[in-house]
Specification:
Length: about 375
């Protein structure tokens, strides 16, 4: 019998069951004490003054864009090599995402290419820390200062990651984390906006709750808001997950190390992920790069699927999705490094609970699928 693996899987233990059950017993399922308690420990973990829980990472990015004052006519510089939410949030506020190509090693924004994309309309750089690895923040901060641009971080894939010892989520006006079940920790659906700015925090808290005013007076809506609240079950789950997060991150490092070792013998076929010097990588996914991409990569995915291994391409380049092409006229060739990565990457099963034996088995199946 061939074994079979999911691509990702959360760790849910008795602490999580207990935490959620307690909320259910209490009868307070929204707007209770769990959400502020989760926010307080989360802000402390990341190292920001404030944290506002929201219903998803995407909702958080939307609020971060509004809080940054991004509006129709503005441009925001970002990466095409990401999950689509990091560019869509710019569209939500009527602004234009201006893509800049990536560093082919880390898949993060290439700072050397940013200045050329700045125009009179540029207001911000939306930095994505991809796959659990920080972007190269020092030159990005320098450019942002030079052109007076805000920095917003999409840290949805990188909770716990550090750039030169400093936690992601502390570099911009605001940053957003996400808790979908394949992330480093989960609340089911959920997200968090973190910031050191009282103004951004107050605005996020108001906007997530239908635009209520500061005093949260009963049904006094002072601006166009949304329902982006996180419910109490999710907040309790998040608090239980956060308690075990250091152990989860350590376990992810271990699984990545096992992959590194096992994949060394396949260096003629693929390159394992690279961690830039000075970075702490928290391993959202384990993404290898194949020497032969395109159709060969897609055939490999099919063969692996037949062997119970659900490898997936990560990510398609955002500018080539049909509605981005239609709206902005992008064509293949616009961002060559991003497109080359999209054509040649493969995410392997990666989650806490995989053993060294599992990794050897998966890599063995990969070896056979590559060779035949
Ligand atoms: C997961 C993720 C998000 C947010 O996703 P949600 O499903 O809305 O929580 C945003 N950006 C990136 C890069 C992501 O990986």
């Amino acid at each position: 019998m061939p074994r079979s693996y999911p691509l990702a899987r959360p760790v849910i233990g008795s602490a999580e069951f207990k935490a959620v059950q307690q909320v259910l017993h209490s009868g307070v399922l929204s707007l209770g004490r769990e959400t502020p308690a989760f926010e307080a420990v989360f802000a402390k973990f990341v190292g920001t003054k404030y944290a506002a829980a929201v219903s998803s990472g995407t909702a958080g990015l939307h609020l971060a864009m509004i809080a940054a004052g991004i509006a129709p006519g503005d441009e925001v510089i970002t990466t095409p090599f990401s999950f689509i939410a990091s560019a869509n949030c710019i569209l939500y506020v009527g602004a234009k995402p201006v893509f800049v190509d990536i560093d082919p090693q880390t898949y993060n924004l290439d700072p050397a290419k940013i200045a050329a994309a700045v125009t009179k309309k540029t207001r911000a750089i939306l930095v994505v820390h991809i796959f659990g690895q920080p972007a190269d923040m020092q030159p990005i901060i320098k450019i942002a200062r030079q052109y007076k641009l805000k920095i917003i971080e999409d840290a949805c894939e990188s909770l716990g990651a550090r750039y030169r010892g400093r936690s992601v989520g502390t570099f911009g006006e605001s940053a957003v984390f996400a808790f979908y079940p394949n992330k480093q920790m989960t609340t089911g659906e959920g997200g968090m906006v973190v910031t050191d700015s009282r103004r951004v925090y107050d605005l996020a808290v108001s906007l997530r709750n239908q635009g209520r005013d500061q005093s949260r007076a009963w049904l006094n809506h002072v601006r166009l808001g949304y329902n982006y609240r996180l419910d109490e079950m999710s907040a309790a789950l998040g608090r239980a997950q956060l308690r075990r997060l250091p152990a989860l991150l350590k376990a992810r490092q271990q699984v990545a190390a096992w992959y590194h070792t096992a994949l060394a013998s396949l260096s003629d076929y693929l390159t394992p992920p690279v961690t830039a010097a000075g970075n702490t990588h928290t391993w959202f996914l384990y993404v290898v790069r194949l020497r032969r991409g395109g159709a060969a990569r897609d055939r490999l995915i099919k063969r692996l699927a037949q062997r119970g291994i659900p490898a997936k391409p990560y990510f398609p380049s955002i500018h080539l999705f049909s509605f981005y092409r239609q709206q902005f006229g992008y064509r293949p060739g616009a961002f060559l490094r991003s497109e080359a990565a999209s054509n040649s990457t493969l995410a392997l099963p990666f989650y806490v609970g995989l053993t060294r034996r599992d990794i050897r088995y998966i890599v063995g199946q990969l070896r056979q699928s590559l060779k035949f």
